[in-house]
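thread from #wetlab-drylab

HS: before we spend reagent money on co-crystallization trials with iron/sulfur cluster, can we at least see a predicted complex? here's what I'd submit
DV: go for it
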Amino acid sequence: MGFADEWAGFGITLHTFFRKVFTQKYPHADTEKVMMPRFHGRHQLNRWPDGLEKCVGCELCAWACPADAIYVEGASNTEEQRFSPGERYGSVYQINYLRCIFCGLCIEACPTRALTMTNEWKLADKTRESLIYEKEDLLAPLLEGMEQPPHPRRLGDDEDAYYGGLPPTGQVDSRVPGKTIEAPKAGDAK
Ligand code: SF4
Ligand code: SF4
């Protein structure tokens, strides 16, 4: 290696020294980082429009997970204690974010679309225990017109009407206070 080669090396160092810094500060001082719409972040357990849970405790997500990061225990609903509209619900639901690799196989396996993934990516924490998310941490928030389970089905008189999303017309719509259900129009999405 000649004398000129050594100085060429220093030249690269000097050139890099004056380049704009690429590293981003965290927490972000100015604009928050926005992820792509289909980014795989923290999971969410979704609800039906009356607040009942979509999870039926079938454990398919847990079986599909290659990292063994999900633990589910199912239980039976009763008419007095109803958490989901059908027969079963997920009584225990945990995701271990120390294991999860955010591959999304669990949400593909879910038969009810109970489990989806949000864009939330800030999952760092200080203890191992706090990275095991319980059902309460994963459940979707209650929107307007939703009730905290347990409660009876509020949309339709039976399961068919509930899942079809077509409660009898003229009935009070529990999702929108003061509104009654109108007959569906041709071309309405089911
Ligand atoms: S995203 Fe992948 S690794 Fe994470 S819980 Fe789902 S299946 Fe398991
Ligand atoms: S999230 Fe879906 S796949 Fe997992 S237990 Fe609930 S219903 Fe079954």
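DV: The two ends are 74 Å apart (CA to CA).
HS: ok that's useful, forwarding to the group
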